[in-house]
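Worked Example 4.2. Consider the chain below.
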Amino acid sequence: MHIFDIYLPVAGIEFSVVLLVAIGFCVGTLGGFFGVGGGWIVTPALNIFGFHMAFAIGTDLSNIFGQSIGAVRKHQKMGNIDWKMGLISIITSVIGLEIGSDVIISLEKAGDVGVIVRWCYMFMLTSLGCYMLYDYFVLRSQQLKNTDSSDPGAADGKSGRRGAANTRRLHRVKIPPLISFPASGIEDVSLWTILLIFLLTGFLSGFMGVGGGFMIMPALVYLIGLPTTVAIGTSLITVLFSAAYGCFTYAVKGRVEIFAALIMLIGASIGAQIGATAVRYIKGYGIRLLFAVMIILAALSVGTEQFYKITGKHFFQSLAGIVLMGTAISMSAIIMVKLVSESTKEKRSRKAKIAQTSDNESRHV
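Applying the procedure from the previous section yields the following structure tokens:
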């Protein structure tokens, strides 16, 4: 047994405390910044390093619940949450999550559920990441040509999103009852459409242990038309409550290693504050670009793990762990560097303005 390893009695394995804290910190930073639970990192990471898939999902959901509390509080102070939309999502997401977790338990009894979950991860993350890269490099350039650079919404792509084909099609669905979300600038959209989106993301949360966030945030941006920062804060509401229920339902089924979740939460609680604060300094399209790159690399790591399962060569397992943790650490580092850089610039600008004001006042005297 390594000096930093501890025995986890529920999962029945030994695991590194340092690795748990590192995973927690990275996921907390990424979760607070992107408005997601980080399950696409925690679940495969725990699975790659020794957890059975069902235990990885249940433990991940417990960690997501804990880290989301601090991130939600931070985004609320920054005014990034549409509470009306967030609260509507809760009941529907819980229903979808229960369906997803039941499917996982049934597949676990039938055979190797890990294979199915890994293929779903690869397909979902790769597809979503490629679309977001397309949006950044193709649609954004088209939007900038048609958008006055003086428009305050230009930096976030707000004007372009409202004219996007997906958003227009969704807003044309007028099945009663219709509902508006003043905090997000959304008017007269069908409630059934909103509920269907959250039902799907809730199912994904229960099926893959992802907290629903990695689908909710892009759905709020690309389908409903929310500004990126508001989508981040609002998605955390659904992540928080769906993860809380997911933690409960997996615990009842005996698939949560609570000790590991508490250790990860030590790092996650710090990282969540850093990530949420960084949202102030990175514009909407910058957030989406980092998000797209991150989930594509995460899909690559899961694909590498699948090669290990097929070939039995431990090289692929080691490579999967390196890619996964390398992605989490690199993205967290980028966010922290950007936070320090931009906050320093802001402080210098503030001091310069104060100095200029004092100089002007002295001249008048």
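The chain has one domain: 5-356. Confidence is low (pLDDT under 50) at residues 148-155, 157-163. Compare this with Example 4.1 before moving on.
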